[in-house]
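Milestone M4 deliverable, item 7.
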Amino acid sequence: MNKTVFFLHENNRHEYNSMLELIEIAKKYNTVIHEDAQISDFVQLGQSCVIKENAILGYAVELHNQVEIGSRAIIGEFASIRTNVKIGDSCVIGAKSS
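Output delivered:
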């Protein structure tokens, strides 16, 4: 099943079939995604983000530039995380938060 991710600074849309494929796409934008992270469909990623192991990004989450998502953190659907924000390990951000 294809999923779609957007990279905000160029408004580029990429479809991918596997987490490893997404990790390779993200490298073009200086973004690091751990292979054990879970990324839902229509997530928007800024440049130079870090998504650590077992983090979960819900449907249509938006991460601006230089955002770090900690291990086991959960970001609810439609949440927006602004530039230079670090979400700690095991934190939970509710749906539609900004």
